[in-house]
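Exercise (ungraded).
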Amino acid sequence: MNPELDPELDLGIDRVIRAPRKVVWDAWTDPDSLARWWIPAPTVCRVDRLEVRPGGGFVTRMSDDGVAFAPHVDACFLVVEEFERLVFTNTVDSRWRPANPEPVAMTAEVVFADHADGTDYRVVVRHGDPAARDLHAELGFADGWGGVTDQLARFVESAR
Amino acid sequence: MAQCPAELDGVFLALADPTRRAVIHRLGRGPASVSDLAGAATMTLPSFMKHVRVLESNGLIHTVKSGRVRTCLLNRERFAVVEDWLARQRRLWDERTDRLEQFVTDPKEENTP
């Protein structure tokens, strides 16, 4: 419900998904379903905690071999409105301990609404200021990371 | 999701030099020999080789020796680590949404446990 979005720090996704709102909600809130799409294959996702309620833990781990699992997300739900909205943050972990998450602190708001073709699915991810952002200044890239990325994209595209 | 900071440092260190950026720029158009690349730089070959080694040890290029000619090639995949951090987060969420969409719209998924 807070529309504030800083284009330097935040991102928004707005997609119509051709499936009923409840199906999309269930894909998010059922651990076995979430594990199927949360991390790109072939990396294996394990959902350790998915307590879909305000204050509930959200913990996923990932593995390249299906045996050794590394931390992925350790977050906490802030807002849960059934079939309508999920808000979670990794700045407070699943045990409510203040965290300094890598690579960047964020709060994600996921909104599910009915649409004639299925579900109007919107995500707003609000980020903290990642430490890595300062790296370009240290290295003297006057145009910042965006400029470097554009340049590199041009270098790489020019050969295609 | 997380980038290894040491890896990122190395890539940026490699790119924080005009000679090395010029090499990357040239290799964007295709492979080139060390001697051709060195010819465009205003320094001795041993000095230039140091730059080549920095680029190679940080994975931005690789080199192949054939007879007396050492050819440099751009390692394009490596540039993903210097992608703008916000663009990277956006790609992560875009791809995540692609997978969610596929999961809920693929009829094969419906009856799988």
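Further reading is listed at the end of the chapter. For now, observe: Chain A touches chain B through 46 residues (CB under 8 Å). Residues 134-160 of chain A have pLDDT under 50 and may be disordered.
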